[in-house]
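[step 3/7] fold_predict: job queued, chain A
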Amino acid sequence: MDSRRVLTFRAVAHQRSFSRAARELSLSQPSVSNQVASLEREIGARLLDRQPGGLTLTREGQILLEHADAIAERFQLANEQLAAAAHGQRTRLRIGAFPTALAGLVPSAIALLRERYPDTKVSVDEGGEDLPARVRSGELHLALGFQDSAQPRHPSPGLERRDLLQEHFMVALAPDHRLAQRPQVRLADLSEDDWTAASTDGLIVRACQAAGFTPNLVSITHDQLAIRALITRGLAVTLAPQLLADAFKDLTLRPIAGNSPTRDVYALLPPGARHPLVAPTLDALHATAAELHRPTEP
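[step 4/7] structure written:
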């Protein structure tokens, strides 16, 4: 297949319009139509249904669009990597990470990296579900993600996953909470408390439901300062991952009695030529993770 025609088809498929795709590609509409028609003849299948209400993808079109998106991502990644090589950008690293990793893992790893490479400049961006796509496009050199260990392993097509640690969660309480003096806390004993969590269906809620109750959520937020304020004032309790042990040291953190929920923290790496600082950064992340993974004393 002609890659130029495939990418032209991709533009039409996303725009659902020959004219809009032509404007995006700076081509004439007849040129775009001819390229798509030639591609359909080449593969022997219709890719688009042209209807009065607009264009829709056929089954063959849906299959090809998935591959066309992957091709476009690799072209973009190649452009990014070639531009970086041409301009000698060997000391600037771009990392993406979820908020908890930015608080408890990334800063220490960067500090270790700079001990070995003092001229290193690191840009750090917060992200979530968008991080894999940003690594695939070359916007980020690597990214840190996580998943509930009890859930099926997340696929990240086209990327390499390197596991860093499996972290346990602890109960986070106000220092004067009625259970603060216990060496361990059963989740069921917090069934009447108000809770704060990042979502209504995430790991914290699932852990509570496994313990026999649905938590009364009075706050849904990722903001660590807000979470700390709620807990410090006795307005809520939550489960805190080990990565936040230092950030939450003014709270009372207690191990969970019984089965503790865990999550896997990992790095995602792009295909192709990687930034020369990716390997030492992974070494620094592994070293930091090993230090953070030490058991937390009550």
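[step 5/7] annotate
The mean pLDDT is 87.
Residues 59-86 form the longest helix (28 residues).
exit 0
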